[in-house]
Design goal:
heterotrimer; A alpha/beta (about 325); B alpha/beta (about 325); C alpha/beta (about 325); A: about 325 residues; alpha/beta; Rossmann fold; 5-stranded parallel β-sheet; two-stranded antiparallel ribbon; 11 helices; C: about 325 residues; 5-stranded mixed β-sheet; 4-stranded mixed β-sheet; 13 helices; about 40% helix
């Protein structure tokens, strides 16, 4: 998926300030991610799951939504997605450090198990792929209630081997639900490469077997991802049913802070993919379009660093959950 | 196993064999309904309308080495694999002699170790994974056996279907996935089950061949299955076959399909009945006549009568066996 | 006040609730035109339309998983699992998702849905249409597990389950569907979840049960009174989670002898929990050891009548066990 960022033309589909805003969120997500690893290595965050390498796909997909009104059902790699949806750095670090005021779970879940009612980000578990059915259910309710909202389920290509992928795709197609299945295909289910997961080159090839469109898109290209998603969203809002979008991406870091990816992939492979790092290539694109220059980039990086520093300080000082809350929220009204 | 290619020059011997098993399956099936209406068999679930697909497919395997994971409609399959009519009826009557489960399971929950028929359950589609597993073992042990999973189109919406086909294709396993598509999951028509016309369209999502065949034509079914079996035996991996069939009865003796199928639809379906259709075809080919038909019917009726007698004479399971076989 | 069957009470309650609450949708396998394989939802699609009473693909994880999303987004889904034995493909969605969503989101999201499933045996259902599954779900905080014994309780408990903000597993005994009749008031009423009911007053022995075996226990209690002069109290738990601990302890203290009756396998069944509560809180009120009468420790209920009878808890078996205990 390496691409040369040359001869860039201004996209007609996205306004310049939106492109710049996307870039801001991509950089912010990467900076938060990098900080998480530092906190982990310092022994302050017990575990980290990263969106490092997926940022362009996640942020651009979010920008194609009516954020706050549409639903997203993320998986653990979707830091950049929730950043783009509007979760604040403070909220993200409260979650990372399992603080009392973690709005995702009150310190109950492992980090990167996103969920925030205010932003219509549905809570997610650790058993992969369950969320694909939840997204179909959200869409079913939206359709019944005649609301003009769509739901997007995010998942890795590993999830597509689960039965629930199949059941969700099928039921969404039969019921023509306003749902989009957004696959972030980074080629690895932890250590298992795609060729050992499936006998096809593209997850999107499965869409036809359900009677829905399947689209492959370069996940490092935010403009293309945005355009593909915008078309899928429009289709869903028109009542024409679901779409499977496969964003080809790459995870630059291990599966988690407990993983060692040198055991299953070469440094050369990772280095090759880093040439397409969206944080770098998108910056180049925007510079070529004249939307960014050194001063602007410096400003963005400074703003991002300030936010990340603030969030770190804020979360570290925040209180831990009261042990008394252990028994709360088992049932309604607890 | 017949080696003759039937496509261009139908082999009369093979066609006669097909027809024998189709008629046996049909007459045995009809007998189980009579036993049900007489109050002697509490429950019947039927394969009527599926016989051409079941027999045509099963005959393409080698029952001596191959392994089959059938579902509850597969009377024709298990007969070809060597389950006797007496054994079949003993299952319907819940007798101790029932080879499938010693009277433990509902009828038509086939299983017969000596005949390479793997026991199945009622939650659908689980057998797709079992067949994938038996094929994995055959491959690992360097055996030439091919496994088969049979299932209805309703099963193809279960996650187990997806997981089985995906696993089999990743590991290039010698397994054939055979969908008997009769258009109904009990009462739910295909259009409410899936948004596609052919189940076989799903095969490409796993990188395996998918073929849709007229399941009322046992020769076409045999040809397609034979090709898939040859492919699997050669180490080229799994296939998905879809046989379009009709379900001539209600889902089971507890169902009433008039509540969801119109009289016109039922009448039209009856005209598709694969048994008389195949008979006509053989007559047109000049390899069948009334005398042969009468002779066959008489022979099969005797088999079915004998099977009924044998099963009825067998004992019910001893209540003390309730606690057996929980562990090995 | 009408006299109706258990099944009719489920259907009429669904109808009444759907009329008053437009958020309710029902879906599952064959629940539409066919009205469910037991006819529980018969006529509901005709009254409420396909948008609110939908046939689903044959995929239990999909049925429950989508119901979770729909509940979170403002509907009140009542998914039906055709048989409780088929609930396990959805176990992941129920236990790992529905039960944990409120807790894991720190109260942000709740899953107000009612998963209905017919359970229980004695109807020639064999190993996959007979199972009692309550212990699997009663073990899980975050779920509620409701098991009505009578048409009256069906109505009040189902209405409460639908109003509940948390996921409820609503288990209907399929043997009760047509065999148990009773008076059911026309007007709407609620029975709080977690309130047991003394179905019969007694002084010599307490029989604690839930679901269908409550009815068997009442039959046994009558026989104990008439033939043996033993006065048996029958406590119907009605819901196994939440559990009415006070009622369990009250009846224990009243009679001093407790027989716990359930259809599920003995070991690890919910009766063990009831027994532990009594042992912890009322040991010195006991005049005899706590006894459990339950299904044997075999994986599920077999088909042949001899084996099925040997498995089933029956009024006679309850009578004998209770008499034995009363005479301790």
């Amino acid at each position: 998926m390496a691409r040369a960022a040359v001869k860039t033309k201004m996209p007609k589909t996205i306004a310049p300030d939106v492109l710049e805003d996307m870039f801001y969120h991509i950089v912010l997500a990467r900076a938060l991610d990098d900080r998480m690893w530092i906190l982990n290595r310092q022994g302050r965050a017990p575990v980290v799951y990263s969106s490092n390498g997926h940022e362009a796909a996640q942020v651009a997909s979010a920008f194609a939504l009516d954020r706050g009104r549409d639903w997203v059902v993320p998986y653990y790699r979707d830091l950049a997605l929730v950043v783009a949806m509007g979760m604040t750095p403070r909220e993200i670090f409260l979650h990372l450090l399992a603080r009392r005021d973690d709005p995702n779970s009150g310190g109950r879940q492992m980090p990167a198990h996103w969920g925030l009612k205010r932003l219509n980000i549905l809570t997610s578990g650790s058993v992969v792929t369950t969320q694909m059915l939840h997204a179909a259910g959200l869409a079913l309710a939206a359709k019944r209630r005649e609301e003009d909202t769509v739901a997007v389920a995010y998942f890795g290509e590993g999830s597509t081997s689960q039965g629930e992928f199949h059941e969700a795709m099928n039921i969404a197609a039969v019921w023509k639900l306003p749902v989009i299945y957004f696959n972030e295909n980074n080629g690895y289910a932890i250590s298992v490469p795609q060729r050992k997961q499936m006998a096809v080159a593209d997850v999107a090839a499965r869409a036809e077997g359900y009677g829905m469109p399947g689209v492959v898109v370069d996940g490092n290209d935010p403009v293309k991802v945005y355009e593909v998603m915008a078309a899928a969203v429009a289709r869903a809002r028109r009542g024409e049913g679901p779409t499977l979008v496969e964003a080809k991406t790459y995870r630059f870091v291990p599966h988690s802070s407990d993983d060692d990816d040198t055991a299953y992939r070469s440094r050369e492979e990772v280095a090759e993919h880093k040439k397409s790092d969206p944080v770098i290539t998108f910056e180049t694109t925007l510079r070529e379009l004249g939307l960014l220059d050194d001063a602007k980039v410096a400003d963005i990086r400074a703003r991002v660093k300030a936010q990340v520093d603030d969030a770190t300080r804020f979360a570290e000082k925040a209180p831990d959950p009261d042990p008394e809350t252990l028994l709360k929220h088992v049932y309604y009204g607890d | 196993m017949p080696r003759t290619r039937v496509k261009n020059a139908p082999d009369p011997e093979l066609m006669h064999r097909m027809y024998y098993y189709m008629v046996l399956a049909r007459m045995l099936d009809e007998r189980t309904w009579i036993l049900n209406r007489q109050g002697r068999a509490p429950f019947v679930i039927s394969g009527q309308g599926h016989e051409a697909a079941q027999v045509g497919a099963a005959l393409a395997f080698d029952p001596e080495v191959d392994i089959v994971c059938p579902y509850y409609r597969d009377l024709g399959v298990v007969l070809v694999f060597g389950m006797t009519p007496g054994e079949v009826v003993s299952g319907h009557l819940g007798r101790s002699t029932d080879p499938s489960s010693g009277g433990r399971q509902m009828p038509s929950h086939w299983g017969h170790r000596a005949r390479h028929i793997i026991t199945g359950s009622s939650p659908v589609a689980t057998q797709i994974l079992h067949a994938t597993g038996t094929a994995l073992a055959s491959k690992a042990r360097g055996e030439k056996a091919v496994s088969a999973a049979f299932f209805g189109e309703g099963s193809t919406n279960q996650g187990d279907f997806h997981e089985g086909l995906n696993f089999a294709s990743v590991h290039k396993l010698p397994v054939i996935f055979i969908c008997e598509n009769n258009g109904y999951a009990i009462s739910v028509p295909q259009r409410k089950q899936m948004a596609i016309a052919n189940v076989a369209a799903r095969a490409q999502g796993y990188g395996m061949p998918g073929v849709t065949v007229d399941g009322l034509d046992p020769v076409a079914v045999y040809e397609a299955t034979k090709a898939a079996v040859d492919r699997a035996r050669a180490g080229d991996g799994p296939s998905l076959l879809e046989f379009k069939v009709v379900r001539l009865t209600a889902h089971s003796s507890d169902d009433d399909d008039k509540s969801y199928r119109s009289p016109e639809e039922l009448a039209a379906m009856r005209r598709e009945d694969p048994v008389p259709r195949f008979k006509s075809r053989m007559e047109e080919l000049g390899i069948w006549d009334d005398a042969k038909e009468q002779d066959l019917r008489k022979r099969v009726r005797e088999e079915v009568d004998q099977a009924t007698r044998v099963a009825e004479a067998a004992s019910l399971p001893d209540p003390d066996t309730l606690l057996l076989h929980v562990y090995g | 006040m009408a006299v109706m069957t258990y099944l009719e009470s489920v259907r009429e309650t669904l109808r009444q609730e759907m009329r008053r609450d437009p958020r309710i949708i029902i879906y599952g396998e064959d629940v539409g035109v066919r009205g469910g394989v037991f006819r529980v939802t018969e006529g509901l699609q005709a009254e409420f339309g396909e948008e609110r009473v939908m046939d689903s693909p044959l995929a239990e994880a999909a049925i429950v998983g989508t119901a979770i999303g729909a509940a979170i987004n403002g509907l009140r889904p009542i998914p039906e699992i055709q048989f409780a034995d088929f609930i396990f493909p959805a176990f992941n969605q129920i236990v790992e998702e529905a039960a944990r969503i409120r807790y894991r989101s720190n109260g942000d999201f709740g899953v107000p849905m009612v998963v209905r499933a017919p359970y229980g045996g004695g109807i020639h259902g064999a190993l996959y249409h007979s199972q009692s599954v309550e212990a699997f779900f009663a073990h899980v905080p975050g779920l509620k597990v409701v098991m009505p014994a009578t048409p009256y309780d069906v109505k009040g408990l189902l209405a409460s389950s639908i109003e509940d903000e948390d996921p409820v597993i609503f288990l209907e005994h399929k043997g009760a569907y047509r065999s148990i009749r009773g008076e059911v008031p026309d007007e709407r009423y609620l029975i709080p979840l977690g309130s047991a009911d003394v179905k019969r007053q007694g002084t010599d022995i307490s029989i604690i049960s839930w679901g269908m075996t409550v009815n068997f226990s009442l039959t046994a209690a009558q026989k104990l009174e008439q033939e043996d002069g033993v006065s048996a109290e029958v406590l119907d738990l009605r819901t196994v989670r939440p559990l009415d601990v006070d009622a369990i302890l009250a009846t224990t203290k009243k009679t001093g002898k407790v027989l716990i009756v359930y259809e599920d396998n003995l070991t690890g069944g919910f009766g063990g929990e009831v027994s532990a509560i009594i042992a912890e809180h009322a040991l010195f009120d006991l005049d005899a050891p706590i006894r459990r009468l339950a299904g044997p420790d075999v994986p599920a209920m077999p088909y042949a009548p001899t084996l099925e009878h040997a498995f089933m808890v029956t009024p006679d078996k309850i009578h004998d066990a209770a008499l034995n205990l009363a005479r301790f």
